[in-house]
């Protein structure tokens, strides 16, 4: 089965792809880095923000304050050949904050036999959680906090397997 096509039945986890712009806004066109190498399990946690309020008439209603989505990447082995390594290392070792940790995520769901595929981009903040780990490899797990400006569009994959995002009008 091709990683960029869907045949039938349930979707495999590989059909939901998450890419980070490894330039961290350093160029006019993103260089997409595919998250997933050495990662066995990760999910976007939507973290819905709701609260239930009961008034003096014993009537309840729910306030919906939206979502605070986040993605935990529990395994990122320090590999100087990875496109995001230098930036992840800098954020961790220099304790960078704010816009220095900001980039864009591209989420693609491959749920049909040919592209273009449904996709979304959104600004995110990358925050390493620790660095080190057991003997064998340096691990720099990081969290991705979604920061808004979500844009719906489509993605096609070129012969080089690089995604090309087109925003909806």
Keywords:
single chain, 169 residues, mainly beta, eight-stranded antiparallel beta sheet, 6% helix, globular
Descriptive account of the structure:
- By secondary structure, the chain is mostly beta strands.
- The protein contains one helix and ten strands, in the order ββββββαββββ.
- A hairpin with a 5-residue loop joins strand 9 and strand 10.
- The longest helix has 10 residues.
Layout of strands and helices, then pairs:
Elements: E1 16-21, E2 32-34, E3 44-45, E4 48-54, E5 60-67, E6 70-73, H1 85-94, E7 102-109, E8 117-128, E9 142-157, E10 163-167
Antiparallel strand pairs: 1-2, 1-7, 3-6, 4-5, 6-9, 7-8, 8-9, 9-10
Q: How many strands in all?
A: 10
Arithmetic mean pLDDT: 94
Following the backbone from N to C, one meets helices and strands in this order, namely EEEEEEHEEEE
Structural class assignment: mainly beta
Q: How far from one another are the termini?
A: 32 Å
Give the amount of beta strand, in percent.
35-45%
Q: Give the count of helical stretches.
A: 1
Quick recap:
The chain is mainly β.
